[in-house]
Amino acid sequence: MTDFQFMQKAQPTVALFVSDLHLQASLPRTTAAFLAFLQSHAAQTQQLYLLGDIFEYWAGDDDLATPYNQFIADALKALQAQGVQLYWMAGNRDFLVGQAFADAAGLTLLQDPHVITAAGRRLTLAHGDAQCTDDHAYMAFRAQVRQPAYQQQFLAMPLAQRKAIIEGIRKNSQDANQSKEMAIMDVNAGAIDTLFAQTGTDTLIHGHTHRPALHRLGEGPAGKLRYVLPDWEYDVETPRGGWISLTADGALHRHDVNGDEIA
Predict the structure, then answer these.
(1) Is there a binding annotation on residue 255?
(2) What region holds the Calcineurin-like phosphoesterase domain (predicted)?
(3) pLDDT in tens, 24-67
């Protein structure tokens, strides 16, 4: 290995980006993989960005009384106590996360989208569901449930009732998705262009679609980069997962389920 190659490998990690873990008590291997990630890779970075659907669903911050949810919050808080800054962006499954959970987990809530400056470059962060504009039924549902008045009314219901409603919505969504074309559930190119124009950045990181990739949009100085995060699932025969890291030299790196860098 040359000195130059060693210097390239030795670049410290500034930030990690992860999404779509869909954590739940019924997926112990996925949970264990996330805890291992927090204790190893995340403990060695300065900032950790959780970009939505970290939980399979979130019925409200009063559900922190559930042991599993408190367990995850405690794990995040322990990481924050080590000096790592944690940031949370709502997904389509856990958009009801509020300040009580943020306080318990030691993290800062972000709006979607959000622009950060780190390691000398500006990045746009999003969950990704707001850009799936070809899925008209979902966009109508999203517009409804993101209204403060709707959320206030929903959160006033007993927790058990909220969970039953969410289970029904999840089942209906799964049934509906089986009849949808895959392209409809992906981001819309025009919506991505609009997001780049609104934020004035040339790099976007998002999740939601479960289609990990690096998309290069355009050529030359005007070209854009769209990084798509993978979803996590370790409780299957062929596990999947991964994350994106930003190193001090401003480079973004894609990592697979084992943490190895994807060329």
Answers:
(1) no
(2) 16-212
(3) 999 999 999 999 999 999 999 999 999 999 999 999 999 999 99
* pTM over cut 0.85: yes
* 136 marked as part of a ligand binding site: no
Q: Please name the residues in contact with 27: beta carbons below 8 A apart, sequence gap of 6 or more.
A: 233, 234, 235
Query: In angstroms, how far is the first alpha carbon of the chain from the final one?
Result: 18
Name the DSSP letter for residue 14: E
| 127 belongs to an annotated ligand binding site | yes
User: What is the fold of 10-128+186-257?
Assistant: Purple Acid Phosphatase; chain A, domain 2 (3.60.21)
The verdict on whether residue 20 carries a ligand-binding annotation is: yes
Distances in whole angstroms, Cα of residue 146 to Cα of each of 6, 71, 139, 143, 213: 48, 27, 11, 6, 28
On whether 177 is known to bind a ligand per the annotation, the reply is yes
